[in-house]
Amino acid sequence: MTRRGFISAAGLIASASYLEQRKRKVDPPTGPPGNSAVTILRAQSYSEDLGARIYEGLRTSGLDVRGKRVLLKPNLVEFDSATVINTDAAVLAGALEAFERMGAAEVRIGEGPGHRRDTFDLATEAQYSTRVPRFLDRFVDLNRDDVSAVRGFANEAEFYFPNTALAADLIVSVAKMKTHHWAGVTLSMKNLFGLVPGAVYGWPKNKLHYIGIQDSIVALNRQFRNTFAIVDGIVGMEGNGPIQGTPKHAGVLVMGQDLIAVDATCCRIMGVNPLHVEYLTMAASLGHVGVDRIEQRGETVETVKTPWQMSPGFLG
Amino acid sequence: MQSVCETYFESRLEFLLRTQNSDGGWGYFPGRLSWLEPTVYAMLALQGRSDAQRSLARAWPLVDSLQLSDGSWRPSPQVKTGTWVTSLALLLCLLRNPSDVRCRKAVHWLVRVAGAESSLAMRMASFCHLLASDVNVEFKAWPWMAGNSSWIEPTAHALMALKRVAHHPGGDVASRIREGEAMLLSRRDRDGGWNAGNPRIYKVDLPGYPETTALAMLALQGVSIPGGLVDQARLWLRDSKSSLASAWLIIALRCYGADEPQPTGPAPSSDVLLAALQALGHPRGNHRVFRPGSPA
Question: Which chain B residue has the Cα nearest residue A140?
Answer without folding.
Answer: B29
